[in-house]
Amino acid sequence: MSKLNKDILFLIFEEFQYDSKSLFSCLMVNRFWCETVIPILWRNPWCYDIKYYDKDYLFIIIASYLSDDIKEFLKRLGIQKPLVSRKSLLFDYLSFCRNVDINVLSSIISTGSSSTNHQLFLQQEFCVVFMKNCQELKYFDMRSLKHQIFHFPEAKLCFESLYELKCDTSIDVSYFYGLARICQHIQKLMIINITNEESNLGIVKLIEVQKNLRHFAWVDFFDGYISKVDPYKEILLALEKKADTIDYLGIYLECLDHTLQKVLPKFHKIKTLITSFRNFSEEQLKVCVYHDLEIFKIDYYDLKAASIIIENSGGRLKKFFLVSYELDDYVDDFEKDSLIFIRKVYENCPLIEYLSHAFTPSKKHLSEFENLLKVCQNLKLLTLILCDMERVITGDENILEIGEDLLKVLARSAPTSLREIRFLYGFKFSLEALEEFLEKWRGRPAITILTIDPIYKGENYKNLINKYKDNGVIKDFRCDYFINLINILNMDPIY
């Protein structure tokens, strides 16, 4: 490794760009490695799993870029951090930065002062520092922004090349108008709606001026209801005008909306779709035709809608996920919808690799599921949810029989491409049935199994699992809390 030139090292280190532990270790090897790693770490210094509010050195580095007048003013304010000269830094850190996250920046600022007024002042000055020193800003998370920074002289040069923006609806409308004046080439726009008020018209304007918007995500994240009818109308109509360029669409609305039903069919070029089809009629669903669809994420209770969308897709679907895994609410005709869904998958999705499915444990369902396994030969990951909550809650002994039947189907017909199975809700396997399954799996690529059932933490199960790990049959077997498993399962988040 010591003989590799800088370009080769850079390519290697880039593979670890989200692995802070490995990158921080590389810093300590020698100066040559340090010089190679620093530009990678500082490209997006906010993405690492560290406590930014406890990192004084980050405050000191950023503050070193302040003018001498501002530093003197900070001393008079009583901010006691050592404010070093930029010339004393080993690297021009901010010149490498392509990403600014106001949330994290606010955490760093809080290490300098606990005063709200001081923090507001520092946020403005730190933003100016980044605008002056970031050569080309690509990613901007403006949540928690308290200043209209887009009127500053440096703003145009800094923001006109912006590629990705994350924001929320609590931000003053004028900020978006300011951003719209200079940012017209945003390709990824992610909006978190945290207010139950009317549409933010500044966001509407920002959407309208974009020339190549490809990725749009909107998620409601608030308590209560919006009283206005069609509260999203202006946003969705502005988005409709970008239908010819958008290939990623994630829209998750808490409130019922009628404009969405008119707008969704227009996005005929999307490759990723994350949404809910609540209150869509069958006729409205049939005009939602997405021939390029590759990734599809939807609520479990929308399986009927999913079947119609899949039937009208172009056969390119590779990943299907369920947004919600909470199966407490009764769904009309769920058993029928689940059965139809299985058929539509194996009839229309020959390329499917990741599949989530919720079904009832009838013989008909297991038979159709086996047909799916035989047809879909590219499957890599399965998430299976048993929708028979009465049996799950009461601990019906038939659950073990259901699990045994499922394992037999998997052992008999699962494609050799399958690498991971996630059992979410309900499925239980006796020690004997699990051992029989693992024995039949021998000779295939090692399998990873995730589950929430604590039965597998028992000593007999642990011994069995360790045996087949040692034999190379099991790659990993994890039993975790429901909330942790949900986080793992949320592989393609909206924001």
Automatic annotation (TrEMBL):
Report the InterPro entries cross-referenced here: LRR_dom_sf
Q: Which Gene3D superfamilies match?
A: Ribonuclease Inhibitor
What is the name of the protein in this document?
Answer: F-box domain-containing protein
